[in-house]
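Workshop exercise sheet. Pairs work together: one partner reads the sequence aloud, the other fills in the structure field after running the prediction. Swap roles for the next sheet.
Pair: D.N. / O.F.
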Amino acid sequence: MSDTTQESGISQNSTDPDTTVNREIKDSVFRDLFKLPENALSLCNAVRDTGTSDPKDLEIFNLDEAVISPYRLLNDLGVLIGHSMLFIWEHQSSTDRLIPWRALEYYVMLIRRKMQMDVSYPQQGLPRPFFYEIFLGSKSGPAVQKRELAELYLPGDETGINPPVLRYNICNPECPILSACPPLFGYAELIGRIKEGVKAGLPMKEAVAGAIEYCIQHDLLRDYLLSKRAEVMEIMPVQLSMEEFTEYVKADGHAEGRAEGRAEGRAEGRAEGRAEGRAEGRAEVSEEIARKMKKENADYNFISRVTSLPVERIAQL
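Structure field:
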């Protein structure tokens, strides 16, 4: 096991002496669950025959050095199996067209890390890379999609550097790897139960608690949730709030803000109207996310980092 992998806890302590639990750099529930060797092996074997059933053959890496989340909640991991296969796993709740580029960047980062320990490492033969994305999409969204680095290139001749990334939408019951990986099936059920609870009007913490209890009673992630119940109760509301905020940001503000901006821009013939409407839409979304995070007793400085709102404004909400 790589010394970069943490087996004992869900969080990584910040060097800030004034750090509280809400200011720590933390693993998401996904990464904390799948950095356990037996779960990582199950995940990798669900997509490809790795040729091993022994978790001791795995070396697991945190992928937080090349691309660090600005929200301090870290999702992705690398799994090296038998020095010949390197799996890069990314976790997303909204579409990010840079995923293929980041996967390649992660691969190069990990090879460089190995070279720091042994400068001749590349001459021994590089492990074959396999890139995957665990996607929290809609139930009706595609179960599997292939994404390629070529999507980012400018028009021109075909290039040979085009590593594919397979995206698995685990919210779609037809996702083929769910039945092959019990830990992933349990994780997908946990997420689904939480979201159903929130849609039914439950406060986030009650929805998380209910989903955990359901999974334990139905023998889904039972041992993990019994040992990590408190950590999951703390992390999952923050994780889902961040995912919701990121989705809004990538949509460039909510529909009302955009519609207002377009209408005003057409009426006055000015592009400024559209820009102002979008800005107002994003501000309203940020404030709504801040309110939700305050209800979960998140630290104000942490909320500020997530939403970019001043601490003073957060206190007023």
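Discussion prompt: The chain has two domains: 11-239, 251-317. What would you look at next?
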